[in-house]
Amino acid sequence: MARLAFASIALLIFTGCATSKEVHLADGSKGYNISCDGTVQNFGACIEKAGEICGSRGYIVLTQQGEAAPFSTTTGGYTADSVSASGGVVSQSGMMVTRNLFVKCK
Questions:
Q1: What are the distances in angstroms from CA 28 to CA 24, 25, 35, 100, 103?
Q2: Strand pairing of 30-35 and 19-24?
Q3: Which residues, at least 6 apart from 2, have a Cβ–Cβ distance to it below 8 Å?
Q4: Could you tell me the pTM of the whole model?
Protein backbone atom coordinates (compact mmCIF):
# COMPACT_ATOMS: atom_id res chain seq x y z
CA MET A 1 0.00 0.00 0.00
CA ALA A 2 2.84 2.39 0.87
CA ARG A 3 4.53 1.66 -2.46
CA LEU A 4 1.36 2.56 -4.35
CA ALA A 5 1.01 5.84 -2.45
CA PHE A 6 4.66 6.76 -3.04
CA ALA A 7 4.40 5.88 -6.74
CA SER A 8 1.25 8.01 -7.10
CA ILE A 9 2.87 11.02 -5.44
CA ALA A 10 6.03 10.63 -7.51
CA LEU A 11 3.97 10.44 -10.69
CA LEU A 12 2.17 13.68 -9.83
CA ILE A 13 5.46 15.42 -9.07
CA PHE A 14 7.14 14.30 -12.27
CA THR A 15 4.26 14.88 -14.68
CA GLY A 16 2.94 18.26 -13.54
CA CYS A 17 1.63 20.89 -15.94
CA ALA A 18 3.42 23.94 -17.25
CA THR A 19 2.88 26.81 -14.82
CA SER A 20 3.63 30.50 -15.11
CA LYS A 21 4.44 33.34 -12.77
CA GLU A 22 4.40 37.02 -13.66
CA VAL A 23 7.74 38.73 -13.00
CA HIS A 24 9.06 42.28 -13.35
CA LEU A 25 12.09 42.57 -15.59
CA ALA A 26 15.12 44.82 -15.03
CA ASP A 27 13.76 47.43 -17.47
CA GLY A 28 10.50 47.64 -15.50
CA SER A 29 8.42 45.73 -18.04
CA LYS A 30 6.37 42.63 -17.31
CA GLY A 31 7.61 39.14 -18.19
CA TYR A 32 6.76 35.55 -17.34
CA ASN A 33 8.70 32.72 -15.74
CA ILE A 34 7.22 29.55 -17.20
CA SER A 35 8.07 26.23 -15.55
CA CYS A 36 7.58 22.85 -17.27
CA ASP A 37 9.28 20.47 -14.86
CA GLY A 38 9.15 16.68 -14.97
CA THR A 39 10.52 13.79 -16.95
CA VAL A 40 7.43 13.48 -19.13
CA GLN A 41 7.34 17.12 -20.32
CA ASN A 42 9.80 19.04 -22.46
CA PHE A 43 10.38 22.67 -23.45
CA GLY A 44 7.47 22.31 -25.87
CA ALA A 45 5.10 22.51 -22.90
CA CYS A 46 6.74 25.80 -21.85
CA ILE A 47 6.47 27.19 -25.38
CA GLU A 48 2.81 26.18 -25.55
CA LYS A 49 2.15 27.98 -22.25
CA ALA A 50 3.93 31.11 -23.56
CA GLY A 51 1.62 31.03 -26.58
CA GLU A 52 -1.43 30.80 -24.30
CA ILE A 53 -0.25 33.77 -22.22
CA CYS A 54 0.80 36.12 -25.03
CA GLY A 55 -1.67 35.01 -27.71
CA SER A 56 -1.45 36.56 -31.17
CA ARG A 57 0.97 39.26 -29.97
CA GLY A 58 3.73 36.66 -29.79
CA TYR A 59 6.64 36.63 -27.37
CA ILE A 60 10.39 36.96 -27.07
CA VAL A 61 12.37 34.24 -25.27
CA LEU A 62 14.69 35.99 -22.81
CA THR A 63 16.35 32.95 -21.24
CA GLN A 64 15.92 29.21 -21.16
CA GLN A 65 17.22 27.04 -18.30
CA GLY A 66 17.08 23.32 -17.66
CA GLU A 67 18.66 20.82 -15.33
CA ALA A 68 18.44 17.09 -14.61
CA ALA A 69 19.59 16.04 -11.15
CA PRO A 70 19.66 12.44 -9.88
CA PHE A 71 17.86 11.60 -6.64
CA SER A 72 17.52 8.58 -4.42
CA THR A 73 15.32 7.93 -1.38
CA THR A 74 14.99 5.01 0.99
CA THR A 75 12.23 4.48 3.54
CA GLY A 76 11.31 1.75 5.97
CA GLY A 77 13.47 -0.63 7.93
CA TYR A 78 13.89 -0.89 11.66
CA THR A 79 13.78 2.03 14.06
CA ALA A 80 14.63 2.24 17.75
CA ASP A 81 11.13 3.30 18.76
CA SER A 82 9.04 0.95 16.60
CA VAL A 83 6.97 -1.60 18.51
CA SER A 84 6.66 -4.03 15.62
CA ALA A 85 9.15 -3.41 12.85
CA SER A 86 8.12 -4.56 9.41
CA GLY A 87 11.68 -4.98 8.22
CA GLY A 88 10.70 -3.81 4.74
CA VAL A 89 12.79 -1.26 2.91
CA VAL A 90 11.55 0.73 -0.08
CA SER A 91 14.13 2.39 -2.29
CA GLN A 92 13.40 4.73 -5.21
CA SER A 93 15.78 6.53 -7.52
CA GLY A 94 15.50 8.55 -10.70
CA MET A 95 15.95 12.03 -12.11
CA MET A 96 14.47 15.34 -10.98
CA VAL A 97 14.11 17.48 -14.11
CA THR A 98 13.52 21.24 -13.98
CA ARG A 99 12.95 23.58 -16.92
CA ASN A 100 12.28 27.34 -16.95
CA LEU A 101 11.55 29.64 -19.84
CA PHE A 102 11.56 33.41 -19.30
CA VAL A 103 9.50 35.26 -21.90
CA LYS A 104 8.26 38.78 -22.63
CA CYS A 105 5.12 39.37 -24.69
CA LYS A 106 5.57 41.61 -27.74
A1: 6, 5, 22, 20, 14
A2: antiparallel
A3: 75, 76, 90
A4: 0.61
